[in-house]
Input
Amino acid sequence: MRPDDLTGIVPLHEAFPSDTEIAGLSSDSRAIRPGMLFFALAGAKADGASFAADAASRGAIAVVAAKGRRNGALSVPVIEVDDPRRALALAAARFYGAQPQTMVAVTGTSGKTSVAAFTRQIWEHAGFAAASIGTTGVVAPGRNDYGSLTTPDPVALHKLLAELAGEGVSHAAMEASSHGLDQHRLDGVRLAAAAFTNLGRDHMDYHPTVEDYHAAKLRLFRDLLPQGAPAVIFADDPWSQATIDAARAAGNHVLTVGRKGDFLKLNRVEHERAKQRAEIVHDGGIYEIDLPLAGDFQIANALVSAGLAISTGTSAPAAMAALEKLKGAPGRLDLVGATAAGAPVYVDYAHKPDALENVLASVRPFTTGRVIVVFGCGGDRDRGKRPIMGEIATRLADVTIVTDDNPRTEVPAEIRAAIMAAAPGAIEIGDRRKAIREAVAMLRAGDTLIVAGKGHEEGQTVGAETLPFSDHDEVRMALKEVAQ
Ligand SMILES: CC(=O)N[C@H]1[C@@H](OP(=O)(O)OP(=O)(O)OC[C@H]2O[C@@H](n3ccc(=O)[nH]c3=O)[C@H](O)[C@@H]2O)O[C@H](CO)[C@@H](O)[C@@H]1O[C@H](C)C(=O)N[C@@H](C)C(=O)N[C@H](CCC(=O)O)C(=O)O
Ligand SMILES: Nc1ncnc2c1ncn2[C@@H]1O[C@H](COP(=O)(O)OP(=O)(O)OP(=O)(O)O)[C@@H](O)[C@H]1O
Ligand SMILES: N[C@H](CCC[C@H](N)C(=O)O)C(=O)O
Ligand SMILES: [Mg+2]
Output
């Protein structure tokens, strides 16, 4: 890449001859190699400007920094921009260039991973080479990479998009987390459509108010989705109308889905244990769909996904037929097994109040015995949700077992105590393995067990260390033990 390629993003041409080769971009000084551009970002923990000298010593040709953020004298030019995070994302999009032709992004407190996975599956059924990118990683033809961030950082993201395009992927669905939107990680992605699922309490350690959290999500519609492009919005959430209004004001083509939806209208749902039958109206046609997934919320996710696929060119009959073949995203109301008496055990990623409420309410209709839940709350994350989740669990489950979920650097017993304070009658078992075993051993015919909070995760983070741990494996082992 040459300086002129960054015109309008970073005024590099003012400091360098036009034939200067830019070898790469990074916001991490430790990743800088000779010839690269270093972007100094003010972060949550550190100020990138204080690593400018380190970047220069590793061969950065220039430092891109916010206006007025110069930090002492440097051996390389400092190029000032209004917003270095946005500049990094836009520069990364130019540097890597190619993206799958049809890109969509979904935001919302819950359902993003599921919608990204479902949209990919609908496209696959319709015959496209499709990918999904999010919390559980990247899935594409010939790829299933474990992920760490829900929305990757812009350099990693644009590198990935170029690779996917190079591998022939024409369609990709990605998750837009509020952190990702707020930190401009997806600026520069050329979106064909975007979607909103719902808004609940989450990340109150990062966003000062729920309005600020909603505003971060709205960036997807206000700043990133091109004017006139489809905005698929789930219509039945308390935050739907505010989102619809904002998307309309931004000039998006709003398409609503759900019971109150116009584009895809849900008329009727009948629940069975592992599936549900839905009647959906689209464009005057009525579709009877057997969705092979448990949980009310999966209907919402399926509608949003079908909305994304149809609004970007998949035919409605093909999208509706694909809904009958959907597989749940790993760890989302994931049926791991059942006891000899038939009591099912689900692993679910509910780690925030609304998600826990939804998952517990979802299994109630087909549970003739008790709903038993095992869950905890992560350390170094929103403390306010702990009593809220304790209250929800004891209100909606018959037996609540409070355990550990990634205590990180906090004292596990204190996290549990904050949950227990609002969970009268709950049983406290810190050791998650033991908690799962006790819960499985308790199961009688008609009961349902939900092991919530970790979903697809493969580790338990205690202090700075992540020890191998899988709810799936623990449930399987516990089921084997009780069978003996
Ligand atoms: C709080 C947060 O979101 N942090 C993200 C953010 O880091 P930051 O900019 O605040 O970084 P920082 O540590 O303060 O450092 C500031 C700058 O100095 C640089 N630095 C630092 C050290 C050094 O030696 N040299 C150097 O240049 C850093 O690279 C950085 O650019 O930008 C980084 C690059 O994009 C992210 O990796 C990082 O995610 C951290 C690891 C994280 O845990 N994020 C979570 C909370 C997150 O983003 N979660 C969301 C939502 C999850 C969900 O609910 O689905 C997600 O999208 O995953
Ligand atoms: N549409 C929905 N409404 C309410 N709850 C949902 C919905 N979809 C999923 N959930 C609940 O939220 C959990 C996480 O779902 P999913 O991973 O699809 O969401 P997400 O938005 O990607 O979450 P995260 O931000 O944690 O990655 C599920 O395990 C389920 O308990
Ligand atoms: N992306 C979320 C996942 C939380 C999962 C839960 N198991 C926890 O550790 O709190 C976060 O890092 O906050
Ligand atoms: Mg997710």
